[in-house]
Structure of RAB31, member RAS onco family:
Amino acid sequence: MALRELKVCLLGDTGVGKSSIVCRFVQDSFDPDINPTIGASFMTKMVPRNNEIHKYLIWDTAGQERFRSLAPMYYRGSAAAVIVYDITKEETFHMLKTWVKELQHHGPQNIVVAIAGNKCDLVDMREVQTELAKNYAESIDAIFIETSAKTSINISEMFEEISKKIPCVE
Ligand code: GDP
C-alpha cells in the first residue's frame, strides 16, 4: 500500500479548540481541562484509505499573540491549513479572516484551506450563523465544516475532505 504524507497545520484564536480537535482525531479522546499549547505541538496519525495509507503530520500552533509570529514556520511547510473559530464567539470568526489574509499573502501557493467552526455541540450559545461562515469559505475557495471535538462530530470527516483536496505528488 502506498504511503501518502499530508502536512497540516492548525491556526486560530486561543481557546477555539485546536488542540482538542487534534486530540480527538489522533487519540479519539476529549479532555475538558486540556493544557494550552505553548508554541506548537506535533502529532501524527495514520489512516488507511482505499489503497493508500494517509499519514497526517499535524502541527498545532498556539493562538496567543506572543506566539503568532511563529506561525509562518508551520504553515509554510504545510499542504493544508485548518483555520478554526468557535461558533459561540463571534470575535474568533473575525480573527479567522486575519489568518486567511496572512495565508494569502505569505502562505505557500495552492495551500488547501479548511475553515472549521468548532464547538457546534453548543447550539444554544451560537453567535456565528452557518450560512454566513459557509458563504465566506466559498468566497475564498476553502473547505467549510462545523465540528465538535467534544462529541466528535465531523472531525475525521474534515481531515478526509482535506486529503481529497491536496493534490497527489508522485
Ligand atoms: P486551543 O487553544 O484552540 O487549542 O483550544 P483548546 O483545545 O485548548 O480548547 C479550549 C477549551 O474549549 C477547552 O476547555 C476545551 O475543553 C473546550 N473545547 C474544545 N473543543 C470543544 C468542543 O467541540 N465543544 C465544547 N463544548 N468545548 C470544546
The chain has a mean pLDDT of 94.
